[in-house]
Amino acid sequence: MVFWSSSPFQGSLDQSMADDWAVFPTQFTDTSFQFGENPSAVGLLKVEEQQVAIATSIVHRRQYRTTRDAVIPIHKMIRELETQGVVSKTHTPFNSPIWPVRKSDGEWRLTVDYHALNQLTPPLSAAVPDMLELQYELESKAAKWYATIDIANAFFSIPLAAECRPQFAFT
Q1: Among 55, 58, 52, residue whose Cα is nearest residue 124
Q2: What one GO molecular function would you report for this record (predicted)?
Q3: Model-level pTM greater than 0.90?
Q4: Which of these, 17, 15, 13, 40, lies nearest to 156 by C-alpha position?
Q5: What is the pLDDT of residues 86-137, one digit of tens each?
Q6: Per the domain annotation, does 94 fall within a domain?
């Protein structure tokens, strides 16, 4: 991961903000697990493997028809995910179809259609914060810095417990 040695906002920050920016990178010494080395890298999180409730029955959906020009790029993406250790070959009765999507720059995005699996998986009761409340809270804290993060390839960055993995199989 490369950090800027100086502010990328040259001329647009006052001196105190520029000084804060200069210190920012030194606060995050081990970022190798958080940031990918390239746009196709997943950046596998070093967190506890997540338990996902097992689907109430087997979901096996046949692969959708895909265009010829998607086949090679998608196979390459899957091989990269294997190399990174975030997916592996398996034998399981579960299967969800992939749905290649062409991005505006001509590259391909690997998506998996888990609609059928989601229908048979017990719902999570996680509390989702109200975005307006979060905004009010942030404004009341008067922080110096706010950031937004584009989480690319996020689905594959969270490790799953071994017993949960078979239901996420795809072709």
Answers
A1: 52
A2: RNA-DNA hybrid ribonuclease activity
A3: no
A4: 40
A5: 889 999 999 999 999 999 999 999 999 999 999 988 877 766 778 888 888 8
A6: yes
